[in-house]
């Protein structure tokens, strides 16, 4: 009887140990389950990333490109195709040299036909409005009176020719003599007037 009670007693002790371990596991699991549940329910502040679309590259051709020949000599480009570091400290009427750079999208070459961006130009030190009349074009007026005395003038808008380099604004106002009358150029009207007067003097006295 005593021999049979020994294994039974050990079994009871083992059951108590297992019961204790199971309770400890439950208690310890309950302690860690609460923060885990909280972390799942409350993920914390979220970060929002805004994707900014990349701006589309402009394919529009600059207006000045219509005047800029491709792969020509840089020194012969029109003034609208280049930017030059000019200054007004030069001596009027004297030769002067300025550093220039081609504008974006403009392609040109040097004397050896090598691609070039920076170069120099040689010009005469003078403002655009001081150029000779052959170096710029001006608007005409058909409303002013050329037959008046003294001869009338009008304000014209003048623009320097493309390949002429000068200082200051390339478009400027200028006072010009009226050169048109009744649809005829002043010189033509003058010639007709002279012919009419000569013809009138040649008529017989009785036909005047």
TrEMBL record:
Keyword Glycoprotein tagged: yes
Top-level taxon of the source organism: Eukaryota
Keywords from the named record: Glycoprotein, Signal
Record InterPro entries: TM2D1-3-like
Signal peptide start and end residues: 1-30
PANTHER family reported for this sequence: BETA-AMYLOID BINDING PROTEIN-RELATED (PTHR21016), TM2 DOMAIN-CONTAINING PROTEIN 3 (PTHR21016:SF7)
Protein name: TM2 domain containing 3
Lineage: Eukaryota, Metazoa, Chordata, Craniata, Vertebrata
């Amino acid at each position: 009887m005593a021999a049979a009670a020994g294994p039974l007693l050990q079994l009871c002790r083992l059951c108590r140990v297992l019961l204790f371990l199971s309770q400890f596991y439950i208690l310890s699991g309950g302690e860690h389950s609460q923060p885990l549940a909280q972390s799942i329910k409350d993920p914390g502040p979220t970060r929002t990333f805004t994707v900014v679309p990349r701006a589309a590259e402009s394919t529009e051709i600059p207006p000045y490109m219509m005047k800029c020949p491709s792969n020509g000599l840089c020194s012969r480009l029109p003034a609208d195709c280049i930017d030059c570091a000019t200054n007004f400290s030069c001596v009027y009427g004297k030769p002067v040299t300025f550093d220039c750079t081609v504008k974006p999208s403009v392609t040109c070459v040097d004397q050896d036909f090598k691609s070039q961006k920076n170069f120099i130009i040689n010009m005469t030190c003078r403002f655009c409005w001081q150029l000779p009349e052959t170096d710029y074009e001006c608007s005409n007026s058909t409303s002013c009176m050329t037959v008046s005395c003294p001869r009338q003038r009008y304000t014209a808008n003048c623009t320097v020719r493309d390949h002429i380099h000068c200082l200051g604004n390339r478009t400027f106002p200028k006072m010009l003599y009226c050169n048109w009358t009744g649809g005829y150029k002043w010189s033509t009207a003058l010639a007709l007037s002279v012919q009419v007067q000569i013809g009138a003097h040649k008529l017989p006295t009785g036909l005047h």
